[in-house]
UniProtKB/TrEMBL annotation:
Keywords assigned by UniProt, alphabetized: Hydrolase, Protease, Viral release from host cell
Superkingdom to which the source organism belongs: Bacteria
Protein name (Swiss-Prot/TrEMBL): HK97 family phage prohead protease
Short name of any one Pfam family annotated for the protein: Peptidase_S78
Species name: Neorhizobium turbinariae
UniProt GO molecular function: peptidase activity
Record has Hydrolase as a keyword: yes
GO biological process terms held by the UniProt record: proteolysis
Lineage: Bacteria, Pseudomonadati, Pseudomonadota, Alphaproteobacteria, Hyphomicrobiales
Domain Prohead serine protease as annotated: residue spans: 10-155
Length: 222
């Protein structure tokens, strides 16, 4: 499933030739604007595959595959994050525009496009820790007003899928997981919270509550 990160506003250098350097994402610390934390080493396997194939992630404008604006020359991980070195194509209009925006400081963000390979979710905080990522592209971006909603909708779809598979296997969901699953199916916040209380915290032993949750899922999906 393709995703994008919140912009990292850390362009480190820019030359007249169009060569520049910056971080496509950073590791650990506080969750980003979309509630994600990227674990150190998340790109190791993907970068190794690119190196073996002699390829690099693509360099796009605003994650738009129809607007390549240059090429990445090097990508590596350090203690801070994913360090990218690239060159804008100054022969194309969008490349020159990107250079002008960067030079003026009007735009100074990079954002990665990736596929999640491994992750974990803190059920108490809702924070996603991304442990292994397939790096597809790294774009120069401005901060889009509706990007958060798009990313959250993609994230919710994956969460619903994973939690559905967990229920199919007969596994028990926590109250927060159950609420997340119901909200992803279109239930309102209050409906999801009430259902979670009834079916996971309700009366009886935890094992019975778990069985209620599975029965609830089967009734919905049947």
């Amino acid at each position: 499933m393709d995703k994008k990160t919140a912009p990292v506003l850390e362009i480190k250098s820019l030359k007249d030739s169009g060569e520049f350097e910056g971080y496509g994402s950073t590791f650990g610390g506080e969750p980003d604007a979309y509630g994600d934390v990227i674990a150190p080493g998340a790109y190791t396997e993907s970068l190794a595959k690119h190196k073996a194939k002699g390829t690099m992630p693509k360099l796009f404008w605003q994650h738009n595959a129809d607007e390549p604006i240059g090429k990445w020359l090097d990508a590596s991980e350090d203690d801070h994050g994913l360090l990218m070195k690239g060159r804008l194509n100054m022969e194309v209009q969008r490349g020159r525009e990107a250079y002008a925006f960067l030079k003026a400081g009007d735009i100074d963000g990079l954002s990665i496009g990736y596929r999640i390979k491994e992750y974990s979710v803190d059920t108490e905080t809702g924070v996603w820790t991304l442990q292994k990522l397939d790096l597809v592209e790294v774009s120069i971006v401005s901060v889009g007003a509706n990007e958060n909603a798009v990313v959250q909708s993609v994230k919710a779809a994956k969460a619903v899928h994973d939690l559905t598979e967990k229920l199919k296997a007969g596994d028990r969901l926590s109250e927060r997981e159950f609420e997340t699953w119901l909200k992803g199916l279109g239930f309102s916040n209050s409906q999801a919270e009430r259902a979670a209380r009834l079916h996971l915290k309700g009366q009886g032993e935890p094992a019975n509550a778990a069985e209620d949750g599975v029965a609830f899922w089967r009734a919905l999906m049947g």
